[in-house]
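Chain A, query sequence.
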Amino acid sequence: MSLDLDIHLNRGRFTLELKVTAPAGVTVIFGPSGCGKTTLLRAVAGLESVDRGQIVIDGSDMTERPAHRRAVGYLFQEPRLLPHLNVLRNLKFAQKMGRKVTEQSFDEVIALLELGHLLDRAPFALSGGEAQRVALGRALLSAPKCLCLDEPLSALDQGLKHRILPYLERLRDRTDIPILYVHDAAEMARLADHIVLMQAGRCLLSGPAEAILSDPAAVPYLGVRAAGTVISGQVMAPDPITGLAVVGFDGGQLILPELAQNKGCTIRIRILAQDIVLAREKPSGLSALNVFEGTITQLHSGQGPGVMVQFKTGNTLFLARVTQYSSRKMELAVGQNIFAIVKATAFDPAGIGT
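Chain A, predicted structure.
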């Protein structure tokens, strides 16, 4: 399935005008406050009318259909469960609002989100993370052809966020529907298959997550501290000498202190641009365990003191940040071979997803 948007919406001084395609999987909508992220989701769901254009979901034009006939599940920042119904009845209520859902599908959603032990509870007896999982289950049980998740974790503390992210990963990997997701850069790197960068109601950049996050042109919109690399790799047998975890990717291997995932599991790892050190010659005698050779593909000098350096190792694009002084001193240039050093301790276990 896919979601194809070509819409124009005017609300006084604000105009939303963009043309994008969101394939199956998670498309993260990212941009500054007021750029139109929530308005976009509301337009897709039918909660906001558009002045002209098309909203096509799975080949069907939904533009003129009312919200309850669009087959769009919407998850807000707050769970918004019906307080007088227990969890089971909240979930069953969702089935009445959507297309026919079989008992097998119902059981699959319960298993996917691990809701079985919560079915008899009242909403007030749920933790923030449990309530949000129930709300997500309710959205799924409406049998949607598209999901809109509007900052679903913003009301949760950091610990709850990390506990609910695996459920969102399962949702991404086990369904074939487009999921529009609005939230921050850390979750974007972990969850996104596709990224749309927005500013002032328009799409600035759109593409696969790995390409966007490692694109120097995206840094002014993502923010220097959010820019970096997302690597997809496979967990391998631990290093026989150090006992440390090893992840193989297209271009080499990463050594990490530890991993919760088992051998053979495919994972995604985020490396911040500021955590990569560059060298013109292969270094020796370092405590750092990860050293990669690559070729510089782009250099981008911003208005500040930094230079973003994109380089390629195998088929994997990396992004590093150095000072303009270092760039001049090293005489960095496109096409030049470079060595990248990454400390094993630079990886945040909470930022590693499946």
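The mean pLDDT is 88. The chain is about 25% helix and 35% strand.
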